[in-house]
Design brief:
Number of domains: 1
Order of helices and strands: EHEHEEEEEHEHEHEEE
Strand content: 25-35%
Number of helices: 5
CATH superfamily: Endonuclease/exonuclease/phosphatase
Largest sheet: 6 strands, mixed
CATH class: Alpha Beta
């Protein structure tokens, strides 16, 4: 297999079973096919009625792994990673959710890319406006796991973190991840691909989306493609970043969030 010169990664929150999920399904598939990612991290994936990981595997022909969603109907929400290349290992961890039943997770997959292994993580952090302290604990748990995996496995390509982090770029939790504040794990921070290669504010939760109705705080960039640093340049450097899932398919938008697709230097 010839090494690729770039790697296309994406992230998208699929909005679980909200709205008319059957009506939204073709729009989800069309949007993902249109950007044709090599790897995509997905959040608010439904693990039961419908089984969206299995549906995505069948419809897109990608390898898919997912964190368990559980049998309790309230917590069939999960994270998934899909890849055009083989997924050779995967694992997941619960994240701190305070007094709530455990339901937030971070999912890891190691992908056998053309130039070697790629470690990809996806997560969906707690959403409350007042939960920055909780999200900071969650990003600390994620960063610790990334650092432990990186030391154990090595590899030339930097780790990639994809997700709906439910936090704006100047929040304390994102500042910690991107090195504007003391990072949870010394020596490990992430590049924000949109900040480096995107255009405009990149709002992924926008009142332009018909599903964002009477939101208390629209026009926020909540969804991220983050690439670990330090890294061997130019490997992992963002080349471009765009939103997707913005245009309707047959009059239907796929989700209440827009996705983010990024080309990285391979």
């Amino acid at each position: 297999m010839e090494p690729a010169t770039s790697l296309r990664v994406a992230t998208w929150n699929l909005w679980w079973r909200h709205g008319d999920v059957a009506e939204r399904a073709p729009a989800i598939l069309e949007a993902i096919r249109a950007v044709d990612p090599d790897i995509i991290g997905l959040q608010e994936v439904c693990s039961l009625d419908p089984d969206q990981p299995e549906w995505l595997r069948d419809e897109l022909g990608l390898e898919v792994v997912a964190a368990p969603g559980g049998d309790d109907d309230r917590f069939t929400i999960t994270n998934a990673i899909a890849s055009r290349w083989p997924i050779v290992a995967s694992d997941w961890r619960y994240l701190d959710v305070g007094d709530m039943p455990k339901h937030r997770t971070v999912l890891w997959a190691q992908i056998d890319g053309p130039a070697g292994p790629i470690d990809v993580y996806t997560a969906h952090l707690s959403h409350g406006f007042d939960q920055s302290a909780l999200r900071q604990r969650q990003v600390g748990e994620i960063a610790t796991w990334v650092a432990d995996q990186r030391r154990a496995d090595g590899g030339a390509f930097p780790p990639i973190l994809l997700g709906d982090l439910n936090a704006v770029p100047d929040s304390d939790e994102i500042r910690q991840l991107t090195g504007r504040a003391a990072p949870p794990v010394p020596g490990l921070v992430f590049s924000d691909a949109w900040e480096q290669a995107g255009r405009g504010d990149g709002a992924t939760y926008s009142e332009a989306n018909p599903y964002v109705d009477d939101s208390a705080w629209p026009e926020r960039r909540l969804d991220y493609v983050l690439v670990g640093w330090p890294r061997r340049r130019p490997s992992g450097n963002p080349l471009s970043a765009q939103l997707f899932g913005v245009e309707p398919h047959r009059g239907i938008i796929g989700s209440d969030h827009y996705g983010v697709v990024v080309d990285l230097h391979a």
